[in-house]
Amino acid sequence: MAQGLASDGSPIEQAIYTSAQTDRGGGYQVVAASPGLVDRDLRALATWCPSHDALLEAQDRATSINFHPLPSGAFCIARTETAGAEYSERGGRRLHTHCLITPPHVLQRFGNNPFALLRAAVAGGLLERQEPAGRPLPAARLPGRAALFDHSLLAWLGRELGSERLNSLLDSALTARLLGLAAPRAERIVAGLLNCLPIEVRTEFSFSTGLRFSPRRPFRWVVVERDEVAQRHLEQQFDVTVVNPHRGRPRAAAPAEHGWARFVAACLDQRRLAQLKAELSRPRPGLTTADLSALGKTCLSEGTVTQRPTAATNMARN
Question: Which residues pair with residue 95 across a beta bridge?
């Protein structure tokens, strides 16, 4: 296993959360952690990490990529997968979650993109499965960096959804309190949505790509079942905005009016990805999601991309 320190001297800590019998008792718990992890982050992992029967798909190779902030200001990037049978007699698949805890400036080297950092970790052998043997995990060495913009991924997202549906999906992703994504290839769609955002705001969006919804795990974007009864339950009981991007707008949704969503969709519609890349690559320290709609409107008014009429505009004209 790769170990040591990140290339800038900052440690990336590790933790493993799974079901086991330890001297602290049996059940799901943090069974191994690198020594640099602070107590408040360890306690938070026990809230965010999944336990028995939490994967959305009941398959031996089902996985979920999970991203969320921690109390110390660090971020957790985790992969949950099945790991054989439960040690207890209740049956079912045991879940194994490998967590990488990274300081903000290390994540920034990878474009504030959890998927990019995770790819580097997998390539370096950092996430190779191991059963903890009662000794601490080492801090991780993860050199390199990633581009801020993945041209091929965004081009794929445009082909997969089209500009109008992407406009609606991105509008919901930016404005909903909780977004429930009901779609095939959901992990790639989540990665594509992050790729549409300026680097400064990407860390505001926690997500999981394959865990069942749980109110105790407060991810902002979650993948949900493609069952309409289950979706209505999430909408009514937990105020989740459920979107199937292949079927247009969510139920009872307002027309997509978020300025940044319209700008991204217009760039795709008019094949102006170079302009979108330029705007995403421009440093904007202090930018937050509260500023993003106005920024999109400014980009539309100042750039070569022209805004297509929205549903609200057409209604006003009529």
Answer: 82
From CA 199, how far away is CA 136, in angstroms rounded?
Answer: 33
Q: Which one, of 283, 213, 202, lies nearest residue 50 by Cα?
A: 213
* 237 vs 216: CA distance, rounded Å: 14
Note whether 89 and 155 are same-domain residues.
Answer: no
167 and 292 both lie in a single domain? yes
Residues 236 and 279 in one domain: yes
Q: Please check whether residue 99 lies inside any domain of the structure.
A: yes
Q: Contact, 63 vs 210, CB < 8 A?
A: yes
Q: Helical H runs in the chain?
A: 39-48, 104-109, 114-123, 151-161, 163-175, 186-195, 228-238, 259-269, 273-281, 289-302, 311-317
Alpha carbon distance 113, 165 (integer Å): 23
SS3 call for 273: helix
**43 secondary structure, DSSP code:** H
Where are the extended beta strands (E) located within 37-126?
Answer: 63-69, 75-85, 93-102
> Could you read off the pLDDT of 203-255 as tens digits, one per residue?
999 999 999 999 999 999 999 998 899 999 999 999 999 999 887 554 444 45
* Cβ atoms 192, 156 nearer than 8 A: yes
> 133-179 pLDDT, tens per residue?
456 788 887 888 898 889 899 889 988 988 888 889 999 999 999 99
Token look-up 């009529």 returns: 318
**Contact status, residue 55 vs residue 62, Cβ threshold 8 Å:** yes
**Both 163 and 271 in a single domain?**
yes
Task: Give the count of domains, the chain.
Answer: 2
Q: Which residue segment(s) compose the domain that 276 sits in?
A: 151-310
3 state SS of 109 = helix
Cα–Cα distance between 3 and 145 in angstroms, integer? 17
